[in-house]
Write a structure and sequence with these properties.
BirA Bifunctional Protein, domain 2; SH3 type barrels; 7-stranded mixed sheet; 14 strands; 35% strand; globular
Length: 238
């Protein structure tokens, strides 16, 4: 059963979604709002968005439906959302490891995937904040929106409906683990390009080589050679 609900305002769609998982067969249940007051990002970061101009969206799917590891599930979700945005905008969208979406060097989407037990079932709670129609980002130099990066005006209701249908369908037909890893790496932001990284408050040049099945990012560093990193162990400066 696939359903989509909408709230005029809520603190966090990832938190509120549990109220909509009422039945035994609750699966592929989506929730959106255009005014999320307490959005969360990866690892406790906050996700602030202008009211009425952006989309907070969460999709709850039963974890038992997937044989993928949590890392590969995260990769696949990022690939699917990237594909949706690339199709929608007709632009090349990149995945900034582990799962931010970058368009024209601007972050337009942040994703937070959590695993929760609700009504005796384990769920993947896929939350994503989409900057859609916001036109000013004074304090966040790397942030942008679909409007600022493409110049196109998007209908918010159509955007959410199409997103929900696209993501739900793609999650019903999972490719192989290797295909997922290959697609993730194919669209990895700044892969095989010289970039500047910050490691323990020190800056160093390096080249992103690939993300692996364990959720690690392999970077060839100027001083330290090829090394794997988990999220928050290294920061890409761009």
């Amino acid at each position: 059963m696939t359903q989509l609900f909408h709230l005029q305002e809520c603190s966090s769609t990832n938190d509120e979604i549990s109220k909509f998982l009422l039945y035994e067969n609750s699966d592929f249940i989506g929730l959106s709002t255009y005014n999320q007051t307490k959005g969360r990002g990866q690892y406790g970061n906050t996700w602030a968005a202008a009211a009425g101009k952006n989309v907070a969206y969460t999709l709850a799917v039963k974890a038992q439906s997937f044989v993928l590891s949590d890392f590969i599930f995260n990769y696949y979700t990022a690939v699917v959302i990237r594909d949706f945005l690339a199709n929608l905008t007709d632009h090349d969208v990149k995945i900034k490891w582990p799962n931010d979406m970058i368009l024209k060097n601007k972050k337009i989407v942040g994703i937070l995937i959590e695993k929760k037990k609700i009504n005796q079932h384990n769920y993947f709670i896929i939350g994503a904040g989409f900057n859609v129609m916001q036109d000013k980002f004074e304090e966040i130099s790397h942030a942008g929106s679909l409007l600022t990066t493409t110049g196109k005006v998007f209908d918010m209701d159509d955007f959410v409906l199409n997103l929900h249908e696209f993501l739900s369908e793609k999650l019903k037909n999972i490719p192989s683990e290797q295909d997922i890893i290959d697609q993730f790496n194919l669209n990895l932001f700044r892969k095989d390009e010289i970039s500047v990284f910050e490691i323990e408050k020190e800056r160093q040049n390096g080249i992103i080589r690939n993300a692996d099945e364990k959720g690690e990012l392999w970077i060839e560093l100027e001083k330290d050679g090829l090394k794997p990193f988990y999220h928050k162990e290294i920061k890409l400066l761009y």
